[in-house]
Amino acid sequence: MQKDYWIIAYYIFTPIEDPLKEVQRQQKFLENKDIKCRIYIAHNGINAQISGCKTDAQIYLEWMKKDARFKEISFKIDFYDEHVFPKACVKFRKQLVALDEEVDLELTGTHVSPKEWKEMLENRDESVLLIDVRNQYEWELGHFVGAELPCLKNFRDFSPYAKKLKNHYDPNQTKVMMYCTGGIRCELYSALLKKEGFSEIYQLDGGVINYGKQESTAHWRGKLFVFDDRLSVCIDEKVDEVISHCSHCKTSSDTYYNCANMDCNELFLCCLTCAEKFKGCCSDTCMSAGRVRLYQAVTRPKPFRRYSSKENGLN
Hints:
alpha/beta; Alpha-Beta Plaits; Oxidized Rhodanese, domain 1; 3 domains; five-stranded mixed β-sheet; 10 helices; 25% helix
């Protein structure tokens, strides 16, 4: 498999005086380049995921580094055989991570390198709380051994979770280790925990993506959920372990589907046999719903995207 495409993830918190102007600047630069992406720009920074042919991807990285505002960006790069986004999408966002509340980034936790993180895991005792701060559908696919796995459906759920956490753990006696996919959520969530009184917080620098590149799968089980067409990846391509299960029959599966019921569209794990049996639906109820997309058998389905009813094969 020829891996001619770079998959790039990065974020940076930095003041952007005119984010709409930056949106236009990015869009202009991407014109006529073999780059597809999801780039969100706010007053306080950028959160981006990009796929591009090697040449154009390198040109983009060099262009970003020339801007004084972005010279401190740490780019996380993977290699793949095709694009993992359908188009180039650059948008203004009021929030880089949807929390719906102001966060003081001066309260961010202490960054620890993957090597330090591994050592901390190996020396962890009962006074250390290890938290996976991703959504449930993410950690079901894979997580660090011994992590607390909160049942969160979206980013906004973390704030009430943080408030309740001090009812179970003494903020003055508990050291917190937290991790996410690429690091950006920990920047905000660590600040939320400090706001609730937890003073000693450590966050994995660069997230699980960075950890896999440097420490492989030490203390990690399963795969990593990613927000692109791949959905599920190994954090080290040499180690392919599946710990997740089909939501229907509970057999081993690391394949996600969007429910074919358009009024549900739930993301769920499913084996190929059950996907065919339930016609791409997450339940019997959804199978008999009024707006169900035509099921097409594929080994690795991509995330559902809204097209016209005719293109969807709508029943």
